């Protein structure tokens, strides 16, 4: 599977999170043109195939051991950032279209980013947000890099189950474990960003700082964006369980107006220092979404 064929619907059939993450990230490594500075927390460097005349010393032998491919890395500098992955596990992450749930899409996306971090020896940790609290799945620490950290994150992702709500009464009550380091850190959120008030917005703003950068992947379905439904449907709130039956065509205009207004305002509100928003649909190829992230980081 190459390029645009790396759809979540195809990858899910493999039933192997490690393989899917590896496929997406390796495709990306050979295709993206980025800064020579390393680390997904900064910008991902470019890899290319070894060619006659290249100095063999420039081959990334660690990557060769994992991929059996002779790849030249444009810079030998390794990342020293702490990358914290944060997965929304509220009930709305169970929303699905064409056999792909938001949670499954998020799992593959994070597995792909974790593989990139593994290749570059990033320090990585994993957290989930559910029922008003932060749960540590893989803790940060001096030994949180390399293959061991990657494997722990995969195991943690495979065990995740979405349900209920996540937002607290006060976002100040949400605390991530402190990790003493002189290095800057990056939080990568994967969520639908659906909120009752402005709990997501306030939470993200409270975290962003010169030493802490925030990247938010907002995953939405095509129907959530386009609402091309006809006839009567029973709509269910996946977090509260409330149901309502409506004629889809009669509410489409109002839905599109409200949805468009919300997404536009959210995008504007998150145009703040040290915050990057990447919006994606469940039908978007994973590689395309990650390339959007890395290109935006470079810019």
What secondary-structure arrangement, pairings included, does this model have?
Layout: H1 8-12, H2 17-29, E1 47-49, H3 61-67, E2 71-73, E3 82-88, E4 96-97, E5 100-101, H4 102-119, E6 123-130, E7 133-138, H5 146-158, E8 185-191, H6 199-207, E9 212-220, H7 222-226, E10 232-236, E11 243-247, H8 248-269, E12 275-281, H9 286-298
Parallel strand pairs: 3-6, 3-8, 8-9, 9-12
Antiparallel strand pairs: 1-2, 4-5, 6-7, 10-11
Quickly list its features:
single chain; about 35% helix; about 300 residues; alpha/beta; 6-stranded mixed sheet; two-stranded antiparallel ribbon; 9 helices
Q: How does this model look, in words?
A:
This protein has helices spanning about 10, 15-30, 60-65, 100-120, 145-160, 200-205, 220-225, 250-270, 285-299; strands at about 45-50, 70-75, 80-90, 95, 100, 125-130, 135-140, 185-190, 210-220, 230-235, 245, 275-280. Strand 10 and strand 11 (about 245) form a beta hairpin. By secondary structure, the protein is an alpha/beta fold. The protein has a single domain, classed as Rossmann fold (3-Layer(aba) Sandwich), CATH 3.40.50.
Short description:
The protein has nine helices and twelve strands.
Strand order of the largest sheet: 7-6-3-8-9-12
- Overall CATH architecture: 3-Layer(aba) Sandwich
N-to-C SSE series? Answer: HHEHEEEEHEEHEHEHEEHEH
Distance between the termini: 29 Å
């Amino acid at each position: 599977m190459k390029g645009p064929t790396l759809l979540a619907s195809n990858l899910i059939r493999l039933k192997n999170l490690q393989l899917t993450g590896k496929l997406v990230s390796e495709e990306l490594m050979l295709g993206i043109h980025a800064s020579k500075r390393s680390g997904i927390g900064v910008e991902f460097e470019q890899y290319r195939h070894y060619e006659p005349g290249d100095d063999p010393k420039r081959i990334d032998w660690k990557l060769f051991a994992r991929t059996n491919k002779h790849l030249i890395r444009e810079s030998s500098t390794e990342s020293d950032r702490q990358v914290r992955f944060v997965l929304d596990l509220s009930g709305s992450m169970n929303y699905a279209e064409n056999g792909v749930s938001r949670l499954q899409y998020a799992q593959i996306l994070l597995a792909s980013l974790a593989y990139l971090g593994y290749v570059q020896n990033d320090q990585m940790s994993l957290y989930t947000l559910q029922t008003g609290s932060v749960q540590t799945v893989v803790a940060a620490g001096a030994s949180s890099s390399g293959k061991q950290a990657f494997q722990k994150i995969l195991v943690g992702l495979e065990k995740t189950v979405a349900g209920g709500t996540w937002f607290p009464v006060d976002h100040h009550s949400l605390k991530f474990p402190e990790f003493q380091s002189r290095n800057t850190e990056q939080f990568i959120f994967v969520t639908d960003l659906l909120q009752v008030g402005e709990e997501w917005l306030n939470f993200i703003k409270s975290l962003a700082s010169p030493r802490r950068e925030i990247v938010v992947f907002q995953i939405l379905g095509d129907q959530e964006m386009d609402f091309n439904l006809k006839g009567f449907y029973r709509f269910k709130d996946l977090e509260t369980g409330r149901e309502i039956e409506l004629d889809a065509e009669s509410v489409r205009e109002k839905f599109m107006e409200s949805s468009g207004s919300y997404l536009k305002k959210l995008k504007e509100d998150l145009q703040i220092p040290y915050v990057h928003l990447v919006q994606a649909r469940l039908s978007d190829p994973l590689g395309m979404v990650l390339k959007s992230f890395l290109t935006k980081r470079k810019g």
